TrEMBL record:
One of its GO terms (cellular component) is membrane. Residues 109-120, 434-445 have a biased composition (Pro residues). Pfam families: MAM (PF00629). This is MAM and LDL-receptor class A domain-containing 1-like. It comes from the Eukaryota. Residues 104-134, 429-453 are annotated as: Disordered. SMART domains: MAM (SM00137). It comes from Paramuricea clavata (Red gorgonian).
Amino acid sequence: FYLFIETSSPRQFGDKATILTSYLNGPQCMKFSYHMYGGGIGALNIYANNQSIFSRSGNQGNRWISEETSILEGGRYMVEFEGVRGRSYEGDIAIDAISFTPGSCPFQTPKPPTPRPTNPPTSSTNPPTQAANCNFDNGDTCGYQNGAGQFNWKVNRGSTSSSGTGPSSDVSGRGFYLFIETSSPRQFGDKATILTSYLNGPQCMKFSYHMYGGGIGALNIYANNQSIFSRSGNQGNRWISEETSILQGGRYMVTFEGVRGRSYEGDIAIDEISFTPGSCSANCNFDNGDTCGYQNGAGQFNWKVNRGSTPSSGTGPSSDVSGRGFYLFIETSSPRQFGDKATILTSYLNGPQCMKFSYHMYGGGIGALNIYANNQSIFSRSGNQGNRWISEETSILQGGRYMVEFEGVRGRSYEGDIAIDAISFTPGSCPFQTPKPPTPRPTNPPTSSTNPPTQAGTVVVYHFYNFLVNTTKSLYTNDDHMPGLWSTALSASKVWILTYCDVQYLLLGTCLEFGFWREFLLNVITQGVGSNSPHQEANDKCARQLMPNGLVFDEEEK
């Protein structure tokens, strides 16, 4: 066999095809043969590190011509063969028998390379994105090249050689995958890197990874030396599907880096790598059991994908919205603490969008769900919303490029699991909705929507009613009853102990609706919540500071 360019229609004058070798290091003697026969021959150009090392043009006769040339490059580089289409279909160019030997060629005075033209021609036959796709099921690396590091990625089928780590099969259960073998002589911190073939412009990359074992290190992925994905530690004995947007312009390769952890139980595997031009869709129903490329952000813990009920009773959904699939949620059991936050970010969006989603906020210790676009608040809910999925839509009025961030805040107990599902985006604002301008993210955001209030006029007690900010102005002269969406829940049929003004007092709620508020105020302001309270005097003082003018309800506010 040999390699050639086919210059028949639809090829046109000046069209180019390029192909690159695997990586080389330092000076090399390159030997090869070429064939350039026909009345419409264009040119054969060869480059190393964008430096021209060989060029021929025009008809060279119906024969193979052997050539050798010295490459004087230092460091690491690839050699690029460029075939240029001439003036007719009689322009096929072929190459064959390519070899490299370290050092310069004998019996040849090396010539210094010349720079590639400052305006390099673009190639109409540039390797397509699909060339970088690989499921390794041919038993090879699809042209991916091992890079710098202490060891290499390997193709494997079935289980890895070490027990207690690595997958038992590829994603499909039938084929091959790529992995790092972390047994001796590998040491902590050793790295293996492998690079894809070239890609052009923004891409949506999808892949699966397996990181199981007590000594797992890290999987890092880079595009043009920019980190686009990172995971570390044991992720469980399962394949996890992932997608991430690569926003690079121009031409680049993607690097997969596997880092050896603290023991031989650190095998990491990847499979099913594919690229699609453009950024990834931000729509997600989580029913593939993954996060659709959403990335966990800053916070004390992470959102998790789940199916069925959450581990805690009395909180969380029993299924996803459809009743059949997966959803995303925050697990608020120990070691989580009051005010802890979990954030997750979608892939990139552009311009105004109508966002639709469903949320579930059920439990006696629910904190808050906040959603931001470009650090602008676009949605917020706090407290128990009942054991049901609630569908919501909101217009995002951002221009340019941004991500949407979902923030879950842990409330006062483990009964605070919050879930989201069925997230979708449609360009433009939502129909039948008057878009509201977003509000800036608080510069010093409260640690929780259920934090007890710390200044007069910020208390709210509710059970069946969910009061919204800027809707009721009844508790204090210049404040509404829920600034910043701070709240605390009180059942009208139970006895609760609340802390306020550094004093504990009992609230005995026995009635519903606004009558409950009146009884609450009556108890606190006039009685200190009972004649037997050891803190009656302090309670009276605290209540008078809170509500010096009492509580007034207008009809339209009920």
